[in-house]
Structure formats: structure tokens, C-alpha cells
Amino acid sequence: MKDVLDEAVEKVVVSNRLADSPCCLVTGEYGWTANMERIMKAQALRDDSQGAYMSSKKTLEINPQNSIIIALREKADADQSDKTVKDLIYLLYDTSLLTSGFSLEEPATFSARIHRLVKLGLSIDDDDDDDDDDMEDLPPMEDDDEGESAMESVD
Known about the structure:
Blueprint: H1 2-5, E1 11-14, E2 23-27, H2 34-41, H3 48-54, E3 58-62, H4 67-78, H5 83-100, H6 107-121, H7 131-136, H8 150-154
Parallel strand pairs: 1-3
Antiparallel strand pairs: 2-3
């Protein structure tokens, strides 16, 4: 997991204190909290030079007894280069960010990852989801014979 997440987290550790969730993010004792980090990112005249020192070093704690982590481990052992495993690791990290109070760096990437996994769960091929297919079901637009719209006639 550390290899996939690379610099997003400082380290990944096995936790004994998690009961229900597969993973969580914790921060260092002297870094910014999630709320302070969000406030500092929102500042208009922020100084990025100090941000690297004060932004929290995140540690991902995983629950080894959780069924998600167990299945993910088995899938990763079977194939290290599986794109689904990497997506699932990033998805677990992103959901841990959200539940811990942090904001997502790239929400569009997060939503694309969720959509890809939903397609996988529904057994939808990537070739079948062209947006042009939806446009074929719509009736053609009708032209106005008047030449001007209703708003133009008011003036």
C-alpha cells in the first residue's frame, strides 16, 4: 500500500485499535489538524514555503481483521500490477481522507475511480459507455417557424 500511495502518506502501519473500518488516517502530534489544514489552504495570501513544514504527516492505519483488507491482500498477492488493486487502495485512502476531515486533492479523479469500480461491479465494459449512444435515443430538435424566440418578441 505504501508503494502505491507513495508520498501521499508517510507510512502505512497495522493497527490494533480499529474495530469496524478497514483503515483510517492519523496525523502527527505537532502538525496541523485536518480542520487547520483546510483553513490554511483556503487563505488567499498563504505562504506555501511554510506549508510543507506544518502540513500534517499522514499515517494510514489498516485493520488486518477487516474483510476488505483481507480480500485486498489476497488480490494484491495474486497480481501486483492489477489496476483494480491500485484503484481500491486509492479509494480506501480517499475515503479515509474524507472521514478524517481532510479535503480531497483531486475530486474528479476520486469520482472517476468510483465510476470505474461501479462499472466493474456491474460488469460493464468501458467500450459500452459512449455518451453518443444516449444522444441517439433523443428525438431531433424541432425548428421554430417564427424566426424569433418568445423573449425577442417581448422587446
